[in-house]
Amino acid sequence: MFVTLFQKECKQILKSFTYYLFIVLLVLFFNSQLSDFTMIHKPVEGSKNYGTTYSKDKDFIMQQTTNLLVTDYLSNDYIAYPIGFYKDVKLNKRKQEKIANILEEITGWKDKELRKQVKDNSEIIYVTNNNKNNVKKRIQLKSNYNIPILDTINYHKFIKRMGKVDKIIGGGSSYAPDGIYHNAEKPLTYKEALDEYNDILYKDHVTNAYARIFCDYIGIMLAILPIFLAVTRGLRDKRAKAHDVIFVTQSSSTIIILSRYLATVVMAVLPVILLGFVEALQTNYYANSLGVSPDYFAYPKLIGYWLLPIILVVTALGFFLTELTNSAIGILVQGCWWFISIFSSMNKLVGSAGRNLVPRFNTVGEHDEFIKMYPELIVNRIGYSILALLLVIATIIVYQYKRKGMLASDRTLLSNWKNKRKA
Amino acid sequence: MDTEIVIKNLNQYYGKKQALKDINLSIHKGMFGLLGRNGAGKTTLMKVLSTLLTVKNGEVTIDDVPITESKEIRRMIGYLPQDFSMYPNMSVYEAMDYLGVLSGLSKSERKERIPELLQKVNLHKNYKTKVKAMSGGMRRRLGIAQAILHNPKVLIVDEPTAGLDPEERIRFRNLLCEMAEERIVILSTHIVGDIEATCEDIAVLDEGELIFDGTVHELLEAAEDKIYSAKVSRLELEKIKNEYIVTSIVSMGNHANVRLVSENTPFEGAMKEEPNVEDSYMYLMSKKRRDL
Amino acid sequence: MIERYYQIGRINVKHNLLPHIIIGLALCLIAPFLMGVNNLNQYQSAQVLEMYVSLLGIVFLVPIFYLDQDANIREVVRAKYTPMIQHYLIRLFEAIILLVIFIMGFILFLHYGECDFPVGYFFMGTLAEAIFLGGLGVFIYGIVDNIVVGYMISMVYYMINFGCKPQMIPHFYLFTMMRGSYENKIYLGVGGVVLLVLGLVLREVRFRK
């Protein structure tokens, strides 16, 4: 019975206009991204520039970060991107004191001492940030001067304190623990560039490197598109006034909701698999042409554990909110969630998973970075899959309540408008 | 054993408003009519019987199965709501097939039952007609066909003839009578004619209370000797309408033939008449008003 | 006459726009917590306006036909003396007034927060973009009689712009002010008005029997 119902649901989706729109939009987006297919090049020895990278040297990261924090503190001028938009932060006295305390823990210097030490080793500069009205006075350390860090402060302790600083500033600052290495940028050497190139070839088998960026941008669309399928399905019973007839059938609420949900998820993932297949043909060929045997499972694997959870949770949220409110509110809620997920990872487009719905990996390569992100990514994805499951269970409960007449299955905001408008 | 529905001390509330007040009723095979004005509580009772509302206070059983066992009950009942509808882009056959699956029918059962039922409701030429293209009458017939797909012991039909043209209405009544040969059919209506034509047993609800429960014959008996007809001038009409319950008026030039309810001979020239169901119903309602 | 228009407008505000006004207000009020609204330079201000404030166009314009979504209500209103198109025009007028007030308010807020940008140009640019985003939704809603699809197209158009390069959508790319160019805004403004008009006309034709 479940299988038959599932098939019928799929058939219904195949007849719905929203579904074809879903496919068209997905393909359009895919195309717009595909057109800038990045080729990979073997670095040539003797080049002037191999690009830049972020240092993995913990002492260097700590040093650069501390230097930055001291100047930010003394200028009381912090920059943050809480959701990807620039934000200038000025702290009040109490919060500045908290920062001073943290600096004392790291350097051993009290505020007065710090100011005295820095005074001789810094200069005042004026920055305009292109805003004519607003010329900011900042303190800048002399290039050969570093703030000394106490020996008792190891990396772990340091990160913990920076977490506090980030919280005081309000999040999204240069001190956010997962992005702290951004403060330690350095040029890439020939050897490092070559390693990077070899990683793509031999560790990623080329295909994995491309599959990651595929997931990166398809994820952006999948964080919104399934909501339309879910809301359309949820509202269909109300639009057709079909709920009572369906309520009194003997099928359990679990079977009804689950068949609808799984049909929506499967129909949403199908075009993604197809697009993945199309791109895989291309990258497999590319790998062969570079003399590497491709990983044929790169795309299916990544779509499975990276993209599928997005579809699962977005669809589940759509089902839940539509069943609960009998309205299209789910679209606006998902719209907000999309906005926040996308913009909050804007300042870290490679290797950010965290708690984000849409993990970003907007680059071809950087195998090491991916390995570093992997455990976090898996935890994140499992978390969202569980959330999806909970939302589906909640939907079933809501549906069950409606069937028993304990929640309204139809609500028309406009019923009394008809009378009033006759005036 | 014949199917039997037993309702004991049923009270049902919508928020603070009491929709059903202490209903006691037993229903047996055949056609059962539930009569009452709009808002009398008919739909509430129907929804309780079809598990769409949870019983909070009282006891309802169908063949000794308590109504709270919704899974078991849903196997036994078929329900046609007041405004039956299905997904507009489904065809007649698809809609039946979909609801058949939801009702737990196997593929072979569906293949056998659906054409049979569509034949019965005269939709056998409309397999491919889309729900959105159907007239009100056709839709209602599809509704009845889906409601008996799983051959339920009890068929519950809410306001079945509302919005149908006279021809459709008669056809639909006959269809229901046919269905009632082998099961309980409960139909609610505020149109007295529906009951008169089809039902053996009836119950009358008013403001959530059961004010009559018995056969059509008993209802008629209750109004025996209380129905009069008279020819009055148009000028008198207003006065009579104010004083008596008038059940019908037929205008004839300057005069009008009126039927009215009265305990004794109302005025000279009025003649005693045999009550019909409509008269009896009006009598019943007027009696209740006076008791208050 | 005036009274009739007032009545139509009042009903629209009360039964249709009110929740959307609340959403719009909420969007504006949470802005300072999410992003900088003081001391921004021209490009940063443009980002706030183009990527955030212009979304108000979707909020206010797309639900324009929602009051008569239900066929029964639509027929009752249609049967009345006042032509349906007048209802639409009044609702459209109200939505645009709201947009102007909200965008103007936000821009002044930024301006007095010492942000540095050409107020007039940015106002027109943001309004043009909002009207385009909303107009796209209204146009689609007018064609398919389904608000979900209306929202879908507007929102996805925004997202596609977010994910692609400017040269891929010539003339109609949304986020140009943050790159220092206003030229596209003329196309967006005119395009938006055309879409709005087409949406109204299509809706009118669809239900005129």
From the structure above, extract its key features.
heterotrimer, B: 292 residues, alpha/beta, Rossmann fold, 10 helices, 14 strands, C: 209 residues, mainly alpha, 8 helices, 74% helix, globular
Walk me through this protein's architecture.
The complex is a heterotrimer of chains A (423), B (292) and C (209). With 423 residues, chain A is mainly alpha-helical. Chain A folds into two domains: 250 residues, no CATH class; 134 residues, no CATH class. Chain A contains 15 helices and eight strands. Chain A has a two-stranded antiparallel ribbon. A two-stranded antiparallel sheet of chain A has the order 2-3. Chain A has a two-stranded antiparallel sheet with strand order 4-5. In chain A, a hairpin with an 8-residue loop joins strand 4 and strand 5. Chain A is globular, with a radius of gyration of 27 Å. With 292 residues, chain B is an alpha/beta fold. Chain B folds into two domains: 213 residues, Rossmann fold, CATH 3.40.50.300; 50 residues. In chain B, a hairpin with a 2-residue loop joins strand 4 and strand 5. In chain B, helix 3 crosses helix 4 and helix 8 packs across helix 10. Chain B is globular. The mean pLDDT of chain B is 87. With 209 residues, chain C is mostly helical. Chain C contains eight helices and no strands. The longest helix of chain C has 33 residues. The model of chain C has no long low-confidence stretch (mean pLDDT 87). The interface between A and C is large, with 48 and 47 residues. Chain B: InterPro entries: AAA+_ATPase (IPR003593), ABC_transporter-like_ATP-bd (IPR003439), ABC_transporter-like_CS (IPR017871), P-loop_NTPase (IPR027417). Chain B: It comes from Anaeromicropila herbilytica. Chain B: One of its GO terms (molecular function) is ATP binding. Chain B: Belongs to the ABC transporter superfamily. Chain B: Pfam families: ABC_tran.
